[in-house]
Amino acid sequence: MFKVRASQIFSHAMEDVVAAKKELDAGAPFTEVVEKYSTCPSKKNGGDLGWMPEDALQSLIGETFSEKDKGKILGPVHSQYGYHILVISEIENQQAEGPFNANTPMKELNLQWPEAHTALFKNFHIGLPVTGYGPDETIGTVCKNHNKNEEEVLTFLNTEYFDKHIAVITPDELDLRIQSGTTHLALLDIRESWERDISKIDGSIFITSENCESTIQSLSKEKEIVLIDWKQDRSPSFLKWLRQKGFTNIKCLEGGIDAWTEKVASHLNRYDIDEDDGYRYEDIMEEPDHTH
To answer: What pTM did the predictor assign?
Structure first.
């Protein structure tokens, strides 16, 4: 897993992006072409989008890339937002944050995640599915003994663990926390504005693509953050994004606002969403800055 830093030229007009590509092919500096053609807010920074996970860029360009693509002009590519020309300026390996490190004893790993043993065998052919490890063995020593890349194994373990262990808080538990008057709780509503107009939890913070940066900066990393979406369908991915920002005490509202209105606040209106109509919470995250 790695992270990338990229810059882009973005426009809703295909003819502008085609003209931009011709100028780049003719040797024009990228920053000059950005200034001339791009309509993305990143234009003020020469098109720089900042750092992003590899899968964010990969989903945009629709293909895999590697370090050999550093400095290469990619595109034009078409997305649901418009047309993009991108250039990768930096690539760095990134170890997933998580509870496991090289010194984590194998015994502790298996206590926290019983399926880890089988997962290591299946993905790295480390050990046997039913055979235990020695009392002094750690993830690091196991990797060394099996001639496996330690960083790659740790990234896999931490990523898989978090994918399978999303912290949640039930509507009833959240209601009790709110009623207690705690000041160490931040409710972050990641839905779209029309949804919030239908129903919302009093005191929740509405985060959008426009106020995302300022909202994130205003949040204390000491507070417990509860993410509110529709039916807890998108909050896990937002939770992972917040973890990359350094927040660790994050939970998803179990069942989202739909479960909240059913179990706690029946006076609020419930609503439905057509999953095929382009509904996406990712627009709040940094990815939107990468695409328009």
So the answer is: 0.52
